[in-house]
Amino acid sequence: MNRTLPAGMAPMLALLLAVLPLAQAAAQERQMLDRIVAIVDTGVVLQSEVDSRLADIITNARRNNQPEPDLEAIYDDVLEALVLENLQMQIAERINIRFDDDTINRILGSMAANSNMSFEEYVTTLEQAGVYLQTREQVRQQMTLQELQRGLVNQRIRITDQEIENFINSEMGQELMQADYLLNHMLVPFEAGEEETVRQRKMRYAGDLIARLEASENFAELRAQAMQGGEFPVTATDFGWRKLDQIPGLFAESVEGMSVGGVEGPFEAANGLHIIELTDQRGGTSQLVRQTHLRHIMLSPNEIRDEEQSLAEIRRLRQRILDGEDFAVIARQNSDDAASVVAGGDLDWINEGGMPQSWEVAVNEMEEGELSEPIRTETGWHLIEVLGRRLSDLSQDFIRAEAENLLRDRKFDLELQNWLIEIREEAFVEFVE
């Protein structure tokens, strides 16, 4: 049966039929804006990822006033780098390496602080630039790759005792093991031809400055006050971090024996009177550590014994010990800590800072031989006894640990490349023309 179109519909239908192929072509064009350029095991690399990485390279080159690279020349290298990243992210997913949003926010907070911005200001800036979500994902991926590489590559690195000994005894090892010192400094300068009485007054003035510092005035603040206007002009030198042999010989010997926060001076030289503060120190081989010998009993709440019952029971055990029963015997019979139960609860010597914070506070207030009140941690209720205290020199242990870390760092990059080659060779990768 013939049907007649309502008036005015024919032109509209003709227009629709004319536009439809164009719309289909546009849709196909939009779909072609992104495509798969490589199949990587169970994942893919998209053309948009390659384009984004190339754009980043161009942007960085312009920012650093460097010539822009030939994109065709580096295209294959960029694609290969994305294939390797994709492979690593698949491995990280399989072994469950993940970073939650709170962790990403902390990293972004640090990035904001480095840009002298608040977290909210930094996020707003990224949102206005349209790169907030992209930045979060880049941070998450970078952290994931670092964690994966650190875990899997370090397992492949072996450092022998002989390598450690050779490194410690080498010239490079000796230099790297030296401590670094950070100094605050100020100078009360001498003037050419000034009278001896003036120099004596300057000596007393420098002495007054030192006395104020020893009375706990802040070095930087006092120096700023003195430079703005004091009895005599004051100047300063920013030495930065330096090894001992890089510090002026005038006060290098004093620095070696100083404690962090200590003040020395005035050191008299031809140019004036120097005052220094050891602001910070890092590295070096002197490692005196306070240690405490502890033993403990732990009771953890469980299906049979709830929180209140666990507390009541550990109080009963405490009273039995105070009444004269042997701590070790009670620990073997009752403690839930599998790591120390055989040793009668003995934890051996523990370095300062190496125990839970709630323990640290209680132990610092206890005398040798004293038994604590019940202490709650996330693992349960504890009784702690202090068996002894000592100051131990862990210099040799520290030196060997530092040497091993330095040797590991030196081997890491080579072993990382070997590992990347291996996972690339073992993977299924197909490039899509």
Protein model, in words:
This protein has four domains: 70-154, Orthogonal Bundle (Triger factor/SurA peptide-binding fold); 157-177 and 394-433, no CATH class; 179-282, Chitinase A, domain 3 (Roll); 288-392, Roll (Chitinase A, domain 3), CATH 3.10.50. It starts with 8 loop residues before the first helix and ends with a strand. Helix content is 53%, strand content 18%. The longest helix is centred in the last third of the chain and has 32 residues, at 395-426. The protein is built from 15 helices and eleven strands. The protein is an alpha+beta fold and 433 residues long. It is extended.
Q: Structural class per helix/strand content?
A: alpha+beta
**What is the distance, rounded to the nearest whole angstrom, between the alpha carbons of the first and last residues?**
52 Å
Question: How much beta, percentage-wise?
Answer: 15-25%
Structurally, the number of domains stands at: 4
CATH architecture of the largest domain: Roll
Q: What is the count of β-strands?
A: 11
Question: pLDDT below 50 for ≥5 consecutive residues: which ranges?
Answer: 1-31
Helix content: 40-55%
According to CATH, the fold-level topology of the largest domain is Chitinase A, domain 3
Question: How does the overall form come out from the CA principal axes?
Answer: extended
Please give the CATH class of the largest domain.
Alpha Beta
Task: Tell me the major beta sheet.
Answer: 4 strands, antiparallel
Q: What is the ordering of alpha helices and beta strands?
A: HEEHHHHHHHEHHEHEEEHHEHEEHE
Give average pLDDT, whole number: 86
Query: Measured on Cα atoms, how large is the radius of gyration?
Result: 34 Å
What is the count of DSSP helices, taking H or I runs of 4+ residues? Answer: 15
Spatial strand order of the main sheet? 4-3-6-5
